[in-house]
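Dear colleague,

Thank you for sharing your sequence with our group. We've completed the structure prediction you requested, and as agreed, I am returning the results in plain text so they can be pasted directly into your records. Please verify that the sequence below matches your submission; if there's any discrepancy, let me know and we will rerun it promptly.
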Amino acid sequence: MRTKFIAKSIVVGCLTLLAAPAGNGQQTPKKAPLPPAVDRERIESFKGMKPPSGPSFYISPVEGSKGSFSLLLANGEGNTVAGSFTLQQLEIFEAVLEAARAFALTDEKVGSGTPITTRLMDQHEWSLFVDVSKIGNQSRFYVSLITLQGRLTAPAGEITRGSKKEPSALLLDILTKVREARTSGNLQ
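Please find the predicted structure tokens below.
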């Protein structure tokens, strides 16, 4: 008898749930009230700004871990890779980046019809390497970073050999940032 009562209760409960309106209890959230006037002005100032685009590089010391640095490389297509590296690795990265810059400014291994690409890397540290592709008087850089998260290659700009104009490329910015981080890491 008791079993029949429990079975009827379960059936009645299930039918009640099925008969309930689908949207009951799931109200759409209302918009939050607008922020005060001071915040509205700040929001208005951002309206014309665009998010950063293109390849980028970020480096920062890891808080609470002396001699460790966090690096992030973005390829400009929404892909990023990040990792943590030691001061000794930064010294190697700096040497590789400097070698790539120096090589790009020479006329060594230049393609005439098709570009010739040369990879610069340390034989023992493969976490960061640079490909320099040369054709005519143009040198293009591609920086690759390998971390536990994965591997990413990002275009890092180009320079024109023999130009009177000061060279400007992401690779040169990366070199500057790594030097600054390494120098500050030596001071800690």
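Summary note from our side: Residues 2-7, 11-20 have pLDDT under 50 and may be disordered.

Kind regards,
the structure core
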